[in-house]
């Protein structure tokens, strides 16, 4: 387990691909699942998943379109990497949470895969 970006974010590489690294301004796509505990993540009890939407989440590195903790976790990510990420509440939804879905001050657990970077998928 390592810390990336913000030292409060825990990142565990599950698979490294040594593909094209994300750079500032790059568009990229992620497949992801999110849970409220590591046990829920491992058991497939998710609070969110890109599969539910039938498409990956797309963003641009540096534009901060993701939760701050997830953005931080991707600091050194490359195409093909799969990461397990633990995001503290303050870098997720904070005290407000997401009514009916995520209680305030909840830590979040993600598994993400970088499935595209820029115009390439390599």
Largest sheet: 7 strands, antiparallel
- Overall mean pLDDT stands at 89
- Sketch the topology as an H/E string, one letter per element: EEEHEEHEE
Estimated share of beta-strand residues: 25-35%
Total beta-strand segments? 7
Rg computed from alpha carbons, rounded to a whole number of angstroms: 14 Å
Integer count of domains: 1
Helix content: under 10%
Report how far the terminal alpha carbons are from each other: 25 Å
Count of discrete alpha- or pi-helical segments spanning 4 or more residues? 2
- Global structural class: mainly beta
- Please state the overall shape, judged from the principal axes of the Cα atoms: globular
Please name the CATH architecture.
Answer: Roll
CATH class: Alpha Beta
* Poorly predicted runs: none
Query: What is the third-level CATH name, the topology?
Result: Chitinase A, domain 3
Name its key features.
single chain, 122 residues, mainly beta, Chitinase A, domain 3, seven-stranded antiparallel beta sheet, 2 helices, 10% helix, globular
Describe the structure.
- It is built from 2 helices and 7 strands, in the order E-E-E-H-E-E-H-E-E.
- The chain starts with a strand and ends in a 5-residue tail after the last strand.
- It has one domain (2-117): Chitinase A, domain 3 (Roll).
- The chain is mainly β and 122 residues long.
- Strands 1, 2, 3, 4, 5, 6 and 7 form a 7-stranded antiparallel beta sheet that branches.
- The mean pLDDT is 89.
- The protein is globular, with a radius of gyration of 14 Å.
- The longest helix has 6 residues, at 38-43.
């Amino acid at each position: 387990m390592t810390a990336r970006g913000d030292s409060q974010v825990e990142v565990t590489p599950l698979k490294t691909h040594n593909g094209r690294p994300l750079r500032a301004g790059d568009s990229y796509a992620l497949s992801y699942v999110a849970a409220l505990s590591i046990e829920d993540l491992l058991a497939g009890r998710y609070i969110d998943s890109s599969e539910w939407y039938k498409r990956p989440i797309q963003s641009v590195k540096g534009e901060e379109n993701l939760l701050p903790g997830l953005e931080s976790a991707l600091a050194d990510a490359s195409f093909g990497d799969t990461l397990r990420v633990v995001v503290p509440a303050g870098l997720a939804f904070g005290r407000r949470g997401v009514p009916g879905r995520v209680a305030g001050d909840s830590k979040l657990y993600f598994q993400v895969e970088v499935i595209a970077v820029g115009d390439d998928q390599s």
